[in-house]
Design brief:
The chain is built from 12 helices and no strands. The longest helix is centred in the middle third of the chain and has 49 residues. It is globular.
Length: 359
């Protein structure tokens, strides 16, 4: 009995120390995020592009400096193409048709309101138009405030990434320069590298397919700024769970303003439902089949990781939450003492606890 109590006290002390250590690490990550975030981003970039470097050094016998330079040039070319696509999508906001979005939204919504009230009166339902207009004006004002807030946060995230870009490049150069391409990697490092590379590659390809399909659907309905919403669907798809929801709802204000006729309700529903079905199909059907067991993280674990890393590092933390949590789980599974925690992250509730001694 005394032995059991002593074991429980030991586990309680260890658990308390783990909680305190986790809080201390979280405080350090927040305080030093100006350096830690670029370094973590550089690590993931290096994991993705290192096979290109290894191929040049091993197969083509390139000097390491030349291989690093060509690898970075290829990465910059890909980023340049993505930047051009984003640049081509964004100017659609400044076209004459969308020069005054507030007026367009108000005009379309007023037209829809007037026609809807007329239809309701024909059915014997009489509503106070002034009261309805007041409620809608308040709703429109609230939507505008939310849109301004989201735009401000997005601009701040992009500015932060651009300001940290030089530091990320420096870290990547040194990580690539210190890599031995002739070494066959095994063990925990190889497992982390393989899983993270598979996840990011799969996410990138499927996000691209999702963005193209969303753009095609919105363009088929004639929705303005369809290219921009397709690009946003591609970018937001990297944020687990909530990213696809935001991407689905983003076209709603434009659809309400553009399709002002009540008969166009099917167009509004199509703009919302079809991209939503695409997001669900790609995220919940196609992606699991391609990735197989994948990162072995329970959906609840992903949501909690999204909240925790988003609280620590903001939008960038949300982007990195899944691969970071998967890396932590792989490390936990390597040690017998921490393996139950790794199983817990995968949603496997183990019934085994601390070793008990018979009395």
């Amino acid at each position: 009995m005394k032995t059991n109590m002593r074991d429980e006290q030991v586990w309680l002390a260890v658990g308390s120390l783990v909680i305190l250590a986790s809080a201390a690490v979280a405080a350090i990550l927040v305080y030093a995020k100006g350096v830690v975030v670029p370094f973590v981003l550089a690590i993931f970039v290096t994991v993705m592009i290192s096979p290109i470097l290894d191929f040049q050094v091993v197969r083509w016998k390139f000097p390491r400096a030349a291989a690093v330079a060509t690898t970075l040039l290829l990465v910059f070319a890909i980023l340049g193409v993505m930047g051009l696509l984003l640049y081509a999508a964004v100017p659609s906001i400044g076209t004459p048709e969308a020069a005054d979005p507030d007026q367009q939204f108000s005009s379309g919504f007023d037209s829809m309101l007037e026609n809807s009230l007329t239809t309701l009166r024909a059915w014997g339902i009489d509503l106070d138009q002034t009261a309805v207009e007041a409620e809608l004006e308040g709703l429109i004002a609230e939507m505008q405030q939310k849109a301004i807030y989201i735009a401000t946060q997005t601009a701040g995230t992009v500015k932060s990434l651009l300001s940290q870009g030089f530091l990320i490049v420096i870290f990547v150069i040194f990580l690539l320069a210190g890599r031995d391409s002739h070494v066959v990697r095994t063990g925990i490092y190889a497992e982390i590298e393989a899983k993270i590379r598979t996840y990011i590659t799969t996410k990138f390809v499927l996000s691209g397919v999702t963005g193209i399909l969303v753009w095609a659907v919105l363009a088929s309905f004639g929705l303005k700024m369809a290219a921009l919403f397709g690009m946003m669907a591609f970018l937001l798809n990297f944020i687990p769970s909530i990213g696809s929801v935001i991407a689905t709802l983003l076209p709603l204000p434009v659809a309400l303003g553009q399709f002002g006729n009540p008969l166009d309700v099917w167009a509004i529903l199509g703009v919302l439902l079809i991209p939503g079905v695409i997001q669900v199909t790609v995220g919940n059907v196609i992606e699991p089949k391609i990735m197989g067991q994948g990162l072995q993280l329970h959906p609840v674990t992903i949501l909690l990781a999204l909240a925790v890393w988003g609280l620590l590092w903001g939008a960038i933390g949300m982007l990195l939450s899944v691969p970071i949590t998967a890396t932590i789980r792989i490390i936990l599974m390597r040690f017998e003492t921490t393996r139950p925690l790794g199983n817990l992250l995968a949603g496997e509730l183990s019934t085994t606890g601390p070793p008990a001694t018979a009395t």
